[in-house]
Structures are given as C-alpha cells and as structure tokens.
C-alpha cells in the first residue's frame, strides 16, 4: 500500500475529475475564436482602406 505523496497520487488517479481540463479547453476555444475575429476584422479594414 503506497504512503505519503504516492498515496495521494493514487487516490487522485482513482477519483478522476476532468472539470479543470474541460474548462481550460473552453477558455482556449473562446480565445481562438476571439483571435480569429480580430484577424478577420483587421483584414476587412485593410481591404476597405479604413
């Protein structure tokens, strides 16, 4: 039976929670969309001459 930090790691692995990873993915996706919109806006403004 593991003890100390090893036991904590084993306990964490068995009680798997993906909330943080899911939230990180959502934040990254929102950032990518925002970046894409910003680039599209700049290109459109450059084409119009604005």
How would you characterize this protein structure?
This protein has a domain at 20-50. The chain has helices at 5-14, 19-48. It is rod-shaped and about 65 Å long. The protein has 2 helices and no strands. The model has no long low-confidence stretch (mean pLDDT 79). The protein has 50 residues and is mainly α.
DSSP summary, beta strand count: 0
Distance between the termini: 68 Å
User: What ranges have pLDDT less than 50 throughout 5 or more consecutive residues?
Assistant: none
Work out the strand percent.
under 5%
Major β-sheet annotation: none
Determine the number of helices (DSSP H or I, runs of at least 4 residues): 2
> Cα-atom Rg, whole angstroms?
22 Å
Q: In terms of quaternary structure, what is this?
A: single chain
- The overall pLDDT average reads 79
**Topology order in helix (H) and strand (E) letters:** HH
Helix content: over 70%
- Protein structure class: mainly alpha
Question: What general outline do the C-alpha atoms trace?
Answer: rod-shaped
State the gist of this model.
The chain is mainly α and 50 residues long.
Characteristics of this structure?
single chain; 50 residues; mainly alpha; 2 helices; 80% helix
Q: What is the topology?
A:
Elements: H1 5-14, H2 19-48
């Amino acid at each position: 039976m593991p003890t100390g930090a090893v036991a904590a790691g084993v306990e964490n692995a068995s009680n798997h929670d993906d909330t943080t990873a899911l939230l990180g993915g959502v934040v990254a996706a929102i950032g990518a969309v925002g970046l894409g919109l910003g680039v599209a806006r700049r290109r459109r403004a450059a084409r119009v001459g604005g």
